Amino acid sequence: MARRMMSDEVQGHIRELILTRRLAPGDPLPTESELMSLFEVSRNSVREALKALQAVNVVDIRHGFGTYVGSLSLDSFVDGMVFRAAVRHRRGEASLAELLEVREALEAGLIGSVAGDIPDADLGRLRELIGAMEREADETGRVSAETDRAFHLALYRSLGNHLLSEVLDAFWAAFHRVREELREERQDERVTLARHQAIVAALEAGDTAGAVTAMRDHFAGIRQVLRRSARD
Amino acid sequence: MARRMMSDEVQGHIRELILTRRLAPGDPLPTESELMSLFEVSRNSVREALKALQAVNVVDIRHGFGTYVGSLSLDSFVDGMVFRAAVRHRRGEASLAELLEVREALEAGLIGSVAGDIPDADLGRLRELIGAMEREADETGRVSAETDRAFHLALYRSLGNHLLSEVLDAFWAAFHRVREELREERQDERVTLARHQAIVAALEAGDTAGAVTAMRDHFAGIRQVLRRSARD
DNA sequence: ATCGGGAGATGGGACATGGGATGTTCCTAC
DNA sequence: GTAGGAACATCCCATGTCCCATCTCCCGAT
């Protein structure tokens, strides 16, 4: 029966409500007091349910304004993975390496799908980003994280898969946040730059197999740096 | 500098507490009243924080018993994706196809990593599962979901990457749950079986490229069924 | 006519308290 | 020795009250 913890029940009702009313992210939800009388529960239960839903980006609570349908983004998933990695790291597991391996699997699989018929517009954008990386490396000695992120997103834009882009971006963000927290070393920027260039070069040549190995090399380089700093 | 919103602040404190005390999943957390006096906040704020953390599997609340460190599993992530897919589906997006594409990218990338040096033990397990599928197909006309799931997990067991297995399994679960909800058609079981056999055959032969294309064929088959039923 | 600021309405945030529901533990009764 | 049940710890739900954030709208100063 549905009688199993009020707040969970309310959570379900709110989810249903979003579905049956065909609400989209950003649409307003009933106020807390409306939800109270709608489901005939106390304000506490409503608030606990909303808090839980907010934690997974299903609703967006704006103080003094109202509650809205959330973005349904994967941000909370990133938080979860970062925390999880932190916990596991303290128990001696190579959580950062595991994250990297997931990224490698994804991108190695994807690059094979895009190579061959990547639009010129995307190639142009990639060349642009390579240029930006060169400039940044010259000026500040580092490639900015955002440029790297944009590069890895631009690669797969032609697939037109929204979910895929978000998943990729989520793992990218998780990896970088964990690496920051662990204060791991970063690869020499010139090497990174060269790897990126190799990927674009293979794409331009329409060389699918070459693109895949270039991508694998890219990740192999990062992995090696991780292993080296793990030995210290 | 107190963050905004008590419950968020408490959430952070609890996370810190788990990290600094080096707690593992299953370890007990302070009771609600202890947390109240520990952080000097009301019971409501503590409960809202716990509810939010429970929603992402960071804590596990057991009625009448206590609260514990959660499993940190990706279950909530699966729920999130299923809900997200449901919302997007109603807005005309091919959310199921997107999920499948993510799975394909992952597995196509991974199969390339394992092929070549997959342990005999894993190969044996894979053959066993194929046998189970044949039996099921004969007896009930369908391959059970669990066997399929086990197959896709066994493929990458040799990588020894716990996170990877969970991510893979999460997307597997999300895909199947969404497909159930949408009442999509399923592929002919004999075809599925043949695809699985082809993958194992390529692995046994040590044929990396063959394994990758077998995997891609497998997903191409599923994709085709989805497209066909979308045309109806 | 326009711009700016302040009052009120709306709506979420926090707290305190009381009673209940549900597990666990342990002791008693047989 | 074992089954039943009371006592306890702990989480669950409700109510009431006040605080604070954000928006709207109107009014006065320019």
TrEMBL record, chains A, B:
CDD domains: WHTH_GntR
Top-level lineage group: Bacteria
Gene3D superfamilies per record: GntR ligand-binding domain-like, Winged helix-like DNA-binding domain superfamily/Winged helix DNA-binding domain
Residue span, HTH gntR-type domain: 4-72
Alphabetical keyword list: DNA-binding, Transcription, Transcription regulation
Single GO MF descriptor: DNA binding
InterPro entries registered for this protein in UniProt: GntR_C, TF_FadR/GntR_C, Tscrpt_reg_HTH_GntR, WH-like_DNA-bd_sf, WH_DNA-bd_sf
Pfam families in alphabetical order: FCD, GntR
PANTHER family in the record: GLUCONATE OPERON TRANSCRIPTIONAL REPRESSOR, TRANSCRIPTIONAL REGULATOR, GNTR FAMILY
Name by which UniProt lists this protein: FadR family transcriptional regulator
